[in-house]
Amino acid sequence: MSLISTIITAAGQGLRMGTDTRKQYLSLQGKPILSYAIETFIGMPAVNNIILVVSPGDESFCLENIIPIHGRSKVQAVVAGGASRQESVYNGLLALPQGTNLVIIHDGVRPLFEGNEIDALLEAAAVNGAATLAVPPKDTVKLVNEYNKVVRTLPRERLWLTQTPQVFKYDIIMNAHQKARRHGFEATDDASLVEVSGQQVRVIEGSYENIKITTPEDMIIAEAILNRRKHK
């Protein structure tokens, strides 16, 4: 049986948020930020199961307070993350059920992804082996040296700001992570690991609303987006 599995990462400390509560558990319009992503993937017929990766010691808390009762059958496991996002994803990969063909990896602090692009991502990954959501930059991007002096202006028409979800064939993403572990390579997203291993990654245009909650300002933006969606 060929399965589509989702790994949701939620093991970060959220230090830039400046709160005692980890950002993935902060309330966004009366609901924990992490709950939005979980509910979105629970509601996707194409997704067979979900692996939730959380901070060590938070497993029981998430089972009891974050995962909705109606979706617990789809959340196959809640596992402890590692010292970095990369280690956390790898722990999630190790927990995937046998028969997983495509792996969706999503940041648990991207609560505004509605799933509109998931079919295009899955199709691109099935054909190309790897695919990521991304959006074109709105601003001009400068490359600087170690003294913060501009080296050159990068061609904006060739640049994309990477988001999640990212989707990979199981063998490709597992091999990329294992190779990175052997060579001590650290990346900030999974597509980068796949690129280094020599695999091309297809870009699917996403939405500017699919923001990652990192700072207090992001909470204000997320609240505004949710309010606008309510009145569509």
UniProtKB/TrEMBL annotation:
Annotated site (Positions MEP for the nucleophilic attack): R156, K212
InterPro entries, A to Z: IspD, IspD/TarI, IspD/TarI_cytidylyltransf_bact, ISPD_synthase_CS, Nucleotide-diphossugar_trans
Swiss-Prot/TrEMBL catalytic activity: 2-C-methyl-D-erythritol 4-phosphate + CTP + H(+) = 4-CDP-2-C-methyl-D-erythritol + diphosphate
Pathway(s) the chain acts in: Isoprenoid biosynthesis; isopentenyl diphosphate biosynthesis via DXP pathway; isopentenyl diphosphate from 1-deoxy-D-xylulose 5-phosphate: step 2/6
Gene Ontology BP terms: isopentenyl diphosphate biosynthetic process, methylerythritol 4-phosphate pathway
Single GO molecular function: 2-C-methyl-D-erythritol 4-phosphate cytidylyltransferase activity
Coiled coil start-end: none
Family note: Belongs to the IspD/TarI cytidylyltransferase family. IspD subfamily.
Function: Catalyzes the formation of 4-diphosphocytidyl-2-C-methyl-D-erythritol from CTP and 2-C-methyl-D-erythritol 4-phosphate (MEP).
Name of this chain's protein: 2-C-methyl-D-erythritol 4-phosphate cytidylyltransferase
The species this protein was found in: Desulfofarcimen acetoxidans (strain ATCC 49208 / DSM 771 / KCTC 5769 / VKM B-1644 / 5575)
